[in-house]
Amino acid sequence: xxRILIVNVNWLGDTLFATPxxxxxxxxCPGSYIAILxxxxxxxxxxxxxxxDEIMVYDEKGxxxxxxxxxxxxxxxxxxxxxxxxxxxxxxxxxxxLYLSRIPERVGYDSKRAGFLLTKKIPAPSGDMHKVExxxxxxxxxxxxxxxxxYEFFISEEDRLASGKILKEEGIRxxxxxxAINAGGNWxxxxxxxxxxxxxxxxxxxxxxxxxxxxxxxxDVELCKEISGLMKNKPVLLCGKTNLKTLGAIFERARKVxxxxxxxxxxxxxxxxxxxxxxxxxSPGITGPYGDGKFDILQKxxxxxxxxxxxxxxxxxxxxAITVEDVLKELE
Length: 332
Prior knowledge:
By secondary structure, this protein is of the alpha/beta class. The protein has helices at 12-17, 19-28, 43-46, 67-80, 92-100, 131-140, 157-169, 194-208, 221-229, 244-253, 263-270, 284-287, 317-320, 324-331, and strands spanning 3-7, 33-38, 54-57, 84-87, 105-109, 120-122, 178-182, 211-215, 236-237, 256-260, 275-278, 295-298. Strands 3-2-1-4-5-6 form a six-stranded parallel sheet, with helices on one face. A six-stranded parallel sheet has the order 9-8-7-10-11-12, with helices on both faces. Helix 12 (284-287) links the parallel strand 11 and strand 12. The chain starts with a strand and ends with a helix.
């Protein structure tokens, strides 16, 4: 049996974008043992993926930060006797880890800093492309042609039951239609104005007679409360009450999911939920929804360069350009 290690990326969205690559490798080598080396925050994204046999956590900022921790991981990887390793991000420290672990075949994109530590260097692609295609380029570089480009988020019946219990406690009956709104994001420039979400929620209630659920992480609790405070028809507040798996199960049940560019938005796409994705400073062509899912992307051309990483921008006009009516048209 061939033993394959895949060194994952560090972020939730990118981890989902890597799932078509993981699937392609497994389908190309169906009898192989596939392990993923990943950051702790990405473990839940990968849990339950049928194309993965083992998830190993590598905590560069925590228990593996110092030399002793690094060498303990080297020893662990050596004991696994992997035949091949794929590294999805160009990183000197992680490529060195594979070299020291004596994995005979080490595959990754070529780079000046770490390329000499690889046994098979794939030329890095030039120009912008979606992250899904970027990762799949690594598979194609070794002769693996993917059968699917859909990124996937797997949830279990246990997750569905747990999410059903959460919804029931908040007054959402089995089979009842609702719209889920994710208002948060990992940086402010990607967020739609709070008053827009509030107005949208009220319009959804009055036009479609559907309840609105506000979802998000623990850090989004105050954000959700602010939006609720601006609404006439109070939404169901689930911020901080779900984990990633129960969130995915709630999205799976939603009539529609509305979200800016964020990890939760990609989870919704990953469970094949119908999604309206609000894009401003980031490029849908690089980090947008991908595959044959049910999604619509809203982004207005306002003359700014996209993607834009000017965190000092004060007017956030790219997001403000999307109106409540624009979103309602997509819902209709």
